[in-house]
Amino acid sequence: MFNKIPYFRFWCQKVLPTVYDDSLSYYELLCKVVAKLNEVIDSTNSVTDAFNELVEYVNHYLDSQNFQELVNNKLDEMAQDGTLSNLINVTIFGDLNDKVDKNTRDIDSLEDRVETLEGDVGDIVEQLGDIGKDMTVAFLSAPDLSTEDPDRGYSLCVVLHNENICITYDLGNDTNANTLVNYLIANNIHKIDAAIISHYHSDHASLGRVNALLGSGIEIVKWYLPHGNINWNRYIGTNYSALETSIKNAIINAGGEYVTPTSEGYLVNLGDAQIRFYNLSATYYEDYYSYMLDEDMNTTTHTNYNNFSMVASIDCGGSRCVLTGDIEKPAERNNAKNIVGADIMLIPHHALNLSEDATFVDSITAKISVAAAYGVARFRRLTIATTPVAYHAGLVGTALSTVNGKPVICNMGTNGVFAYSNAVGTTIPNAGLGDIIPPNSDLDDYVQVGKQFYIQNANVGATIANIPFTTSHSAGRLYVIPTNQNTNPETGSMVQVYIAYFSYAQPEVAIRYMFDGIWRPWKSIMFNPITTQ
Length: 533
Known about the structure:
Shape: elongated
Structural class: alpha/beta
Radius of gyration: 48 Å
């Protein structure tokens, strides 16, 4: 308890003498000071009373209550209304949380920098790893008379190899795969890391050639077989299910191993090279079962099996080779994205397809495109007038073929992409068929002097007005040429020449003349066979 301050004691008279101005005697001033001082004492003592009362209340309160219970109740109240949470999280831990958050951000930033550094190191390691990596890409060929089908030729077999690995794509069209085996032996290759079959057409693979390779003494680490998602029950016409089973059994019986990839972009890493497989999707196959046009766009009675070819994309030393098998128009549409960035490309289906997917054609990037010669039309379409893909491949880069038994052997990798000068095959001429004439057209309307056009098959030919031939060999090529140096198309003076180009019969040519805007009748000539004396 605090004691009160006693009054200031004094013995001065409170009755002051009469004064007539502001001046006071010392006595009068002292009286006033004493009076004011006692007023201050009264005020101070009132505060003391209040404090003593508060002390007594607190002492009495603590004595009469459970203090721990009071604290607990207050904490409960603060917890319920959020005061305690705010006190702890904001007041106490606020600054600590800020510091923790800052440290977390610093750690995240450091991790990002570490990841970036790791990526940079990985790129450097990858680039260093590619130094000196090159592969030979050999598109094999053989004289027609040595093949199992001399009228059609050797077909397709590609070998990609360096001192560490070897990849093969298809087996060619000769007895016992002799051309392939002989090439491997000549190049001191005793192991095939990946033996790929694009599809089971006889000019690409056969049970006899598979058995011959299995028995050649050359080790085959693994076979990669096509169209794992095919549904043979959906396939129209005679299918290749039995042959597929026989080839798989032959591999297993020889102690070999095969894989049938089923996912787009299926990856095989061989160290020096990486293979990705495409055209495997069951969704893609839905477009293929009902496609029954052949390469000449004639309607057949069976599914066009070529579209199920397995596409292989091989990367080595920063270069890429894409092997397309025998895909035709619908499969080209699905695989256009897979040829973008290719440095070497196999022209699909021996460069025989008269109709191509426009997106596929526009996606060609290859420096070197190669057609594996095969088929009765191979000479015409590879040496005289080329089909659309071959033509555009020649505009983008160099287009070569294996016609006449001439192989094409290239390099791909860190030392560049080029064909070896002693194995460049046959150059495909940059002379296309021209623009396609769609069904239900009228040849009277084709008056662009200097242009050439073509009708792809007899079915389309039957719908064309003013065509000179209406027989099965009506498919052909149309040339619009000037009559002479004074030709004036504006006044109607020009010549059309039509050749039954896609006929396997003796060549027939028709010609007609426009004068004063009016077409004169066609005149045709049937050439006699050329004989030697």
